């Protein structure tokens, strides 16, 4: 890909508001205005589509190294581009675990080679995600990958003392601990949200308190030691309330919600189809409502996909044997439109904040999540909210097919994604 | 009714049809011929991922008494134990042309998954901690034989409700059939959302006991003790065991049921288990009749009502 080609995006609605043309050159936004002259630039007709800053996903599982049968950095970053993302944070639970400078550098390099979006490796908090001993956080921070987000995601840093130390230690390089909040003893063998549905289905329950207790503890710890805490995939009403309370006390906590927790509920497990099996589990309609409200009022700062690809054999099985997780990158914006925009809870500027600016800021991705303004990096997503589509996992760029939205009609379509002025997606097709 | 996956899927009419059919088939069996030609040429596969000789033998006897070809596909020593997936096994059964598959599996929902992958009728013979619908049917059959009715019958189900597929299926079926169920257990052994179930709940066995027409004792596994569901076997037995002393305080007409296998001395004392008011042995006999009825209705097809004697006699 070359950056010598200039692009003129004609007639886009910037953050869903005013209509304007955007001229992209040398990786930056060179001009914004009405009736800009193409002057040799390639013209991309937006036809009134919404222009958003390139989306940033703080929570992606790219599976490489180790599970290249499920996803690779290349296929996952293509899926990201198709979903309108220009940056993803790749979680550390690979094989080997991203707990050394060597592994995070490898992932970072693979991302650069693929070139579809910026790939920021997340470093593990503890060696091997075992929750026993801190990984070399400083070495990962100092590596060319410049890691700032650390997470044992998939596992909870459940030891309170270790969590305290991690929170304290990353202050030296402006890092953040992204906690997967799951009290392990309360969730031994857990299969789905504990409640009416799990009791009927005879599947071991995953109580909301197992998430909420860890979040409450971590907020208090972060406040005590003056560190940054990020809470991954908040899934319960009680968690929203606790985070709201912690923020009101001045705790430096941020939180994310996944698209699937904004839309899907635990009764989908009635089919025992493990495509709906995910960690944290799908919760109740009441939780979904609280999450939407929390995202709207800023209690929950961002949407992150927790894109979790799995090969079909990991899902075409009994529920209890199946892997946890679902695809998210290629449907996230549509689900957010459906649950937040079409319901009147957020406007497109609010979406841009929660899916681009704030996740970039939390992850300290300096050239991502910038405003659509002259001189800024040309990371742009063009999205047509008037389109509708029936979700077809077979047509996805991801290597895996475990989308819970298969067959659902969702609004919106990503028309184009530009990474530093270069289209990674045009006409809804990967470039 | 294409499969029998959950007792909750049965309407009242369907449940009664199974019980009525079971009675007819039982009478035929008693009279003379042990073997009916009803399912000749049909293949029934017993797919058992969990060791349960009792249940497997019961289904096998039921199928054979109706002249079906029976294939026992037990997890041990087959490709199943070598890591073959349930789906691959299902495709094999499909290729073999199985008309019915009886599945016992440690995973809740396994029967429902299987039903998506095979064309034949699937009978859930116990899936994890979910359901065991033929057990509930044979329990209902036994109650009706002994007590003469199900409507308004007061049934206490005592023990590890939370982990019991028998309890789940019984609550659903007995509710459909108009009985009044009270679950009795320490709070740790009840599901968290039990208040949403169509039954009463009590922590006090002694209070429920004299008011019950049927007392169904469930097995309590010792491993629950290690997981802190209750402090000790002795304490459990003292509070929730059917001791001879408690037995004496039951109503005169009341019966004692147990799905087996029993832990004598833990949830039920030996003299109670062996008493004339215990239905444990009948439950085994009735199990075959009820399973015959289920296989007959699923595989033999078109019975519309009680006037279907022609084919069974
Ligand atoms: Zn996680």
UniProtKB/TrEMBL annotation, chain A:
Residues annotated as binding Zn(2+) 1: 59, 61, 153, 306
Residues reported in the UniProt entry to bind Zn(2+) 2: 153, 180, 233
Similarity section: Belongs to the metallo-dependent hydrolases superfamily. DHOase family. Class I DHOase subfamily.
UniProt keywords, alphabetically: Hydrolase, Metal-binding, Pyrimidine biosynthesis, Zinc
Gene3D superfamilies according to UniProt: Metal-dependent hydrolases, Urease, subunit C, domain 1
Binding site for substrate: 61-63, 93, 279, 310
InterPro entries per UniProt: DHOase, DHOase/Allantoinase_Hydrolase, DHOase_cat, Dihydroorotase_CS, Metal-dep_hydrolase_composite, Metal_Hydrolase
Cofactor list: Zn(2+)
Gene name per UniProt: pyrC
E.C. number: 3.5.2.3
Cellular component GO terms held in the UniProt record: cytoplasm
CDD domains, per the entry: DHOase_IIa (cd01317)
List of catalytic residues: 306
The protein's name: Dihydroorotase
Biological function: Catalyzes the reversible cyclization of carbamoyl aspartate to dihydroorotate.
Taxonomic source organism: Thermobifida cellulosilytica TB100
Cofactor binding, note field: Binds 2 Zn(2+) ions per subunit.
Biological pathway: Pyrimidine metabolism; UMP biosynthesis via de novo pathway; (S)-dihydroorotate from bicarbonate: step 3/3
GO MF terms, alphabetically ordered: allantoinase activity; dihydroorotase activity; zinc ion binding
From TrEMBL, chain B:
GO cellular component: cytosol
Keywords: Pyrimidine biosynthesis, Transferase
Taxon lineage: Bacteria, Bacillati, Actinomycetota, Actinomycetes, Streptosporangiales
Chemical reaction(s) catalysed: carbamoyl phosphate + L-aspartate = N-carbamoyl-L-aspartate + phosphate + H(+)
Enzyme class: transferase
Any one GO biological process: amino acid metabolic process
Residues making up the signal peptide according to the UniProt record: none
Protein's name according to its UniProt entry: Aspartate carbamoyltransferase
Gene transcribed to yield this protein: pyrB
EC number: 2.1.3.2
Stretches assigned to the Aspartate/ornithine carbamoyltransferase Asp/Orn-binding domain: 151-298
Source organism: Thermobifida cellulosilytica TB100
Gene Ontology MF terms in the entry: amino acid binding; aspartate carbamoyltransferase activity
The keyword Transferase is annotated on this UniProt entry: yes
């Amino acid at each position: 890909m070359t950056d010598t080609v200039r692009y003129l995006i004609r007639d886009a609605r910037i953050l869903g508001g005013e209509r304007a043309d955007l001229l992209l050159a040398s990786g930056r936004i060179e001009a914004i205005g009405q009736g800009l002259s193409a002057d040799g630039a390639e013209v991309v007709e937006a036809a009134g589509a919404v222009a958003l800053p390139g989306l940033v996903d703080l929570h992606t599982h790219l599976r490489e190294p180790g599970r290249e049968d499920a996803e690779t950095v290349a296929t996952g970053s293509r899926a990201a581009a198709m979903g309108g993302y220009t940056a993803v944070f790749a979680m550390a639970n690979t094989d080997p675990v991203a707990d050394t400078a060597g592994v995070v550098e490898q992932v970072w390099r693979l991302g650069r080679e693929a070139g579809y979006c910026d790939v920021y490796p997340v470093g593990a908090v503890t060696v091997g995600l075992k929750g026993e001993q801190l990984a070399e956080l400083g070495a990962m921070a100092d590596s060319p990958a410049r890691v700032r987000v650390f997470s044992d995601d998939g596992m909870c840093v459940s030891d309170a003392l270790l969590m305290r130390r991690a929170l304290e230690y990353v202050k030296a390089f402006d890092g953040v601990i992204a906690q997967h909040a799951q009290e392990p003893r309360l969730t031994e063998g857990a299969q789905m949200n504990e409640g009416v549905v799990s009791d009927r289905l005879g599947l071991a329950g995953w109580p909301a308190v197992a998430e909420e207790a860890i979040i409450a503890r971590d907020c208090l710890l972060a406040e005590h030691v003056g560190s940054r805490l990020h809470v991954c995939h908040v899934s319960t009403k009680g968690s929203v309330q606790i985070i709201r309370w912690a923020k009101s006390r001045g705790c430096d906590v941020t939180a994310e919600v996944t698209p699937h927790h904004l839309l899907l509920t635990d009764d989908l497990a009635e089919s025992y189809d493990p495509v709906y099996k995910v960690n944290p589990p799908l919760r109740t309609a009441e939780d979904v409502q609280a999450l939407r409200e929390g995202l709207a009022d800023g209690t929950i700062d961002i949407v992150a996909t927790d894109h979790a690809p799995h090969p079909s054999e990991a899902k075409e099985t009994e529920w209890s044997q199946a892997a946890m997780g679902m695809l998210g990158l290629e449907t996230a914006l549509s689900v957010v439109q459906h649950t937040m925009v079409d319901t009147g809870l957020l406007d497109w500027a609010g979406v841009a904040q929660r899916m681009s600016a704030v996740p970039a800021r939390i992850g300290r991705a300096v050239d991502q999540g910038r405003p659509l303004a002259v001189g800024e990096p040309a990371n742009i997503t063009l999205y047509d909210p008037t389109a509708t589509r029936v979700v077809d996992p077979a047509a996805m760029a991801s290597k895996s097919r475990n989308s819970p939205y298969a067959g659902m009609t969702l609004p919106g379509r990503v028309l184009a994604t530009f990474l530093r002025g270069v289209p990674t997606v045009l006409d809804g097709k990967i470039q | 009714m294409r499969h029998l996956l959950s007792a909750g899927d049965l309407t009242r009419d369907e449940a009664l049809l199974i019980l009525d059919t079971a009675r007819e088939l039982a009478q035929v069996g008693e009279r003379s011929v042990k073997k009916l030609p009803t399912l000749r040429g049909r293949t029934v596969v017993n797919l058992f991922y969990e060791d349960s000789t009792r249940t497997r033998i019961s289904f096998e006897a039921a199928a054979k008494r109706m002249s079906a070809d029976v294939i026992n596909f037990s997890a041990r020593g087959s490709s199943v134990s070598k890591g073959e997936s349930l789906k691959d096994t299902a495709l094999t059964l499909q290729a073999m042309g199985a008309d019915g598959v009886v599945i016992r599996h440690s995973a809740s929902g396994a029967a429902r998954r299987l039903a998506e992958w095979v064309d034949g009728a699937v009978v859930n013979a116990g899936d994890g901690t979910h359901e065991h619908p033929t057990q509930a049917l044979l329990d209902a059959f036994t109650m009706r034989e002994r007590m003469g009715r199900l409507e308004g019958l007061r049934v206490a189900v005592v023990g590890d409700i939370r982990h019991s597929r028998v309890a789940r299926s019984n609550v659903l079926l007995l509710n459909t059939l108009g009985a009044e169920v009270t679950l009795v257990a320490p709070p740790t052994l009840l599901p968290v959302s039990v208040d949403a179930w169509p039954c009463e709940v009590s922590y006090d066995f002694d209070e429920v006991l004299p008011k019950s027409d049927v007392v169904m004792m469930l097995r309590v596994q010792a491993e629950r003790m290690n997981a802190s569901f209750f402090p000790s076997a002795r304490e459990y037995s003292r509070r929730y065991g059917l001791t001879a002393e408690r037995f004496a305080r039951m109503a005169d007409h009341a019966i004692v049921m147990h799905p087996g296998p029993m832990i004598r001395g833990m949830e039920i004392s030996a003299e109670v288990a062996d008493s004339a008011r215990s239905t444990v042995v009948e439950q085994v006999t009735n199990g075959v009749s009820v399973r015959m009825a289920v296989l007959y209705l699923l595989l033999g097809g078109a019975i519309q009502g009680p006037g279907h004697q022609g084919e069974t006699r």
